[in-house]
Amino acid sequence: MATVYVSSTIADLKRERRAVMDWLRAARHQAVDSYLPDSDTVRDSCLDDVGTCDLYVLILGHRYGFRPADDNPGGLSITHLEFRRAGLCGIPRIALLRTSIPDVSLSDIADPEKAAWCSRSGRRLPARCVRRSLAMTKA
Amino acid sequence: MRPAEFGDDKGLIQGLSTGIQGELDKRPAPHIAAGRALRLAPRPVFLAGREGLLAEVDARLTGDDGAGPRMVALCGLGGAGKTSVALEYAHRHLGEVEVAWQFACEDPAVLAAGLGELAAQLGARELVDARDPVASVHGVLAALAAEWLLVFDNAADRASVQAFLPPAGRGRVLVTSRDPFWPPGQVLDVPVLDREVAAGFLGTRTGDADRTAALELAGELDGLPLALEQAAAYIGATGNNLTGYLGSFRRRRPEMLARGEPTGYDSTVAAAWSLAFGRLEQSAPGAAGLLRLLACCAPEAVPLRLLLQPRPGLADRVGPQVAPVLVLLLEDELAAADAVAALRRYSLVSPPADGAVSVHRLVQAVTLDQMPDQLAAAWRQAAAVVIQAAMPDDPAQPGTWPVYALLLPHAQAALAADSSGMAQIASYLGYSGSYAAARDLCQSVVEARARASGPEHPDTLSAHANLAYWTGLAGDAAGARDQYAALLRVEERVLGPEDPETLASRANLARFTGRAGDAAGARDQLAALLPVRERVRGPEHPETLTDRANLAYWTGRAGDEAGARDQLAALLPVRERVSGPEHPDTLTARGHLASWTGRAGDAAGARDQLAALLPVRERVSGPEHPATLITRANLTHWSRRAGDVQPGVK
User: Which B-chain residues 41-60 have CB contacts (< 8 A) with chain A?
Assistant: First the structure.
């Protein structure tokens, strides 16, 4: 059994999150859910939780997600921060990338800056994608 | 990190499953604390529907009553998931024990070697007896202050592991075995999964949200955990889905049962029972034969007590490969009991209950699949002969219906559609009230006989008559009338106009003509039939008397109530003389006469006739027989019509 942190944006991936959580529980892994990112306190709690898990699972659609204003010089989203924290902690990361866009209104494909994180080029090399998008958002 | 892309839920779960397993495989082996001895197969990745069973195992294994190790034998069919339950229990309780060790028990030498390894791990060889690892291990475990847990996996039977079971200590012992014969209180049956749970497992395991396909496949696999896991593994490996697998399974079952690499199992379904089959064939040919006979029946409980009876002459109707084994099973009850017991030792049949046993449908499938075609055909024929021989003669008699009910699914599984046995089954369905089912089965009998013997063969015509009859009773009187009219033309030509079958069809044509709304037509047809019947059968033959009764009935229904009454009044003395004054047919004629007397305007006369009839009915047929109840209801009706206040009510 492993403790598995499930990270994703919320609005566009509700069904996928539920499917992954159900599967993990059925396989008797301990699934740790990221919270609705409505405050910095919650953000810190999420990031702390990431560091205690055995595995990190990223479900990525075409939405960048909520970006906390404070203590976030890079302007990264919660999901992005979680992904980075897992990498810094040396926690194995599993990325599941959705190819379809069921609801364009919930996607960021019209925003080139946000779309970089979710782009198809990023999908092939997500680690480099993280660094590149970080530089972009700093600019 | 290698990302996985997905387009739907199935792809999502496949990517998740592969990613998780890949990362877990990279993890170093868990550190074993100094002093602990641990050897267990990995914890089952997927386990469904076993919480209740695990709780029961725990309840039986925990609690220190000072009486020594507690033991549970998990028993069940090969592939039922006995080892998975044992391993799940062991892993859940790993923190409570100092020693957790799993022994493979198929081979005594391997089991003994396993004890030797545990002895070495415990440092016991030097402490107790270096030459006897079993005694060494038993000694250490008896003296150990901490708790321990041993799993004896896949024991052939109790005798094969008895010498290895620790006699003392604070221990828990789990045995898995197909053999259910263990001391009372130690056995726990590991059943197959129910359909809902099995479907849930398939959906979760494959990520395929098609619930309908999951339920159908769960039904096809009859909830066998090995088969479910094998199917899911195959789907995962091939990128198929549940619907695709279901189609392949139905088309090519033997090959599909050999494909797939089920996680947590050593073999496929096809291979899981082959060892047991081979051993049975060598050591207990009667049991192997019985299993083959059972494989040709339906998966429902097979009434062996009915089937396995001496049947003189039956040996001549089955193939020479089958006859010696089958005749022994039929004629020697001890041989039959030995065969059942031998099958029970491998959990290949359920415990006998009320003289019946059940066989898992996949055991049936694999048994049939592993036989050469010619042998399988011989056993199918034998099953059909045995089942048909067990059928009572007259399905019209209610006393035979319980026997027919037991034989029904097996007859439908084993009998040829054009056989006389299948026609008997159709008659049973009809006489017992399942008119539509009788009609549908008759339809298939007609079609099969038409293919086998031709559309105008007497057997086909007889089946057609039955089809028309049950069509009418199922509510389609006009359809029955038309079928009889068409049939009659053929019967008159093929059988002759005065053949009993032809005359029966004429009588039924009249009956359903009337029921379809043409009472006068029915009356006229019966009036034309009666002289022929009297000439062919004689004036007092029961069929002639029935025609007369029906002529009276349709005469009345056509508007001539007094005519009906008079016909019945003339008929009654003949009935009484031919059948006897208290024969059910005579009493029925009396009831009809009373009714038409009332309808002809004499309600008091009807009341008096029925008042005289009722005590005879109660005595002859019983107070709650339908005919008695009808008589009582009619008495009430005509008493009211005659002006009585509280008539006919006892």
Answer: 43, 45-48
